[in-house]
Amino acid sequence: MSNSNGDMFDLTGRVALVTGGNGGLGLGMALGLANAGADIAIAARNADKNAAAVSAIEATGRRAFAIPTDVTSDSDIDDMASRAIAHFGHVDILINNAGATVRKAPEDTTAAEWDNVLDVNLRAAFLSCRAIHPHFKAQGGGKIISIGSMFSIFGGGGSGVPYSSSKGGIVQLAKSFAVAWAGDNIQSNAILPGWFMTELTQAIPESQPERYDLINKRIPMGRWGTPTSFRARRYSWPVARRTT
Fold it and tell me: Which range marks the domain in which residue 74 is found?
């Protein structure tokens, strides 16, 4: 997204709405967008983390606004979109980042656990896109970025069958919205991150050292990414490391 000066990474005057944007990759992306000039609406549940995220974003010189949001609630998602628009006057970018997982063998995974992961990872992304669409259409366009995973492509038994299934769905969701809303000048894409050290994964080095070592051997650079890989200069994430 470029502005009149032709800078492809200049987001001055733009507003991004990031679900799950108060920690991990979500906050890393929010800070990256803020460093590029965008104002940020954070949609997440935890009030303390929301406040900390707002402070970190404001430290970049950009405006930030936190919206308490449970992405499994239809009404919260509708409220999230309307409050972000009311606060900033417009929204230009939606990032579907909120995520959940359950690490169990498929035969031990309950229907309720399956439903929760699919609701958070896939259903919420659909509802968020649907909620923002009228605004994007009315203003002449918008950008949707949905966060998948490497398990969107590969089987993810170790990370849970619901998780990998939901992330596979994210790819098709992004493609389907791209086709459905191209005529409204709305672009929809998916990003498929590999292994990053976040709240969802930071216990693995100590709790599953063999798996951690195996993962590292399959990564060409031999290390995991961190949220600061999204270039958030004023924020650092405590990276868990094995000492033996």
Answer: 15-230
